[in-house]
Write a structure and sequence with these properties.
9 helices; ATP-binding; Rossmann fold; binds adenosine-5'-triphosphate; ATP binding; 6-stranded mixed sheet
């Protein structure tokens, strides 16, 4: 059981934004997609999530081709947190998190007791209880990012995609969210996250996939993949690395 992507390409006119991408997201693993701005990470994630009809290639979710699933069937298996999403709806924080349960309700169905319990649990885990009744449009950037992550988590799908879930967060919240995603993975979910923070990638990811100009140039455990050569190709940087508490840390040190 896993999410397997084979030779996925996203055409744009005569060229490709993503070309021949093959990867596997294993349940139990926190898998990261990294690479420079414009490398194709969000496009690849959106294509895997079935949001780009022009994409070519195959995506199999636990041995089922996603092309054969209805949007609702796919939403039962995969939740997707887009990059930097705004909230324009006049809903409370609790309502926005509750939208994550929508695919599990009938057309005119009301949230079940289980739906409500999952929403409260998600709000609690993300530390949002104190603002649960606030209008979502009144939130700070970091609060909004947590609420939208809550919506994706509340779906409780076996696979979760999150595009830069830590980008708007302060350092403590970044650690909190990556710890939470790590715990979700350990509980058996297959999680794919886009990250720009190489230190979080080095310390927390089980598997790192590096993109460069629309192609995957490396895929493996952080200790192997986050090496000088790959980081130079991907970003044109030299890292500074070290070890603390048995974990390897890594910070971008100079441009090369
Ligand atoms: N509809 C489109 N039309 C033209 N160019 C596009 C379109 N969608 C994406 N691109 C281009 O494709 C490239 C990859 O975009 P993508 O958003 O996947 O990058 P990314 O790796 O997620 O970048 P970032 O780290 O900046 O979020 C970028 O150069 C982007 O401008």
């Amino acid at each position: 059981m896993s999410l397997i992507v084979r030779k996925l390409s996203v055409p744009l006119g005569e060229c490709h934004i993503v070309e021949d991408a093959s990867l596997t997201v294993e349940p139990g693993n926190l898998t990261g997609l990294i690479g420079a701005n414009g490398a194709g990470k969000s496009t690849l994630m959106r294509a895997i999530a079935g949001l780009l009809p022009d994409a070519k290639g195959e995506v199999r979710l636990d041995d089922i081709t996603t092309a054969s699933l209805t949007p609702r069937q796919l939403a039962h298996r995969l939740a997707y947190l887009p990059q930097g999403q705004q909230v324009d709806w006049s809903l409370t924080v609790r309502d926005v998190v509750g939208l994550g349960r929508f695919p599990f309700q009938g057309r005119f169905g009301r949230p079940s007791a289980e739906d409500r319990a999952i929403v409260e649990d998600t709000i609690g885990r993300l530390g949002l209880s104190a603002i649960a009744e606030r209008a979502a449009t009144s939130l700070s950037g970091g609060e909004r990012a947590l609420v939208l992550l809550g919506r994706a988590l509340a779906a409780r799908t076996p696979y979760l995609f999150a595009d830069e879930p830590t980008a708007a967060l302060d350092p403590a919240r970044q650690l909190e969210v990556i710890d939470l995603l790590s715990a979700e993975a350990k509980s058996g979910k297959g999680i794919l996250v886009v990250l720009h923070d190489l230190n979080l990638a080095s310390r927390y990811l089980d598997q790192v996939i590096v993109m460069h100009r629309g192609r995957i140039i490396a895929d493996g455990p952080p200790a192997e993949v986050l090496c000088e050569d790959t980081l130079q190709t991907a970003y044109g940087i030299t890292p500074l690395t070290g070890e603390s508490d048995g974990q390897r840390w890594l910070i971008p040190w100079r441009r090369t």
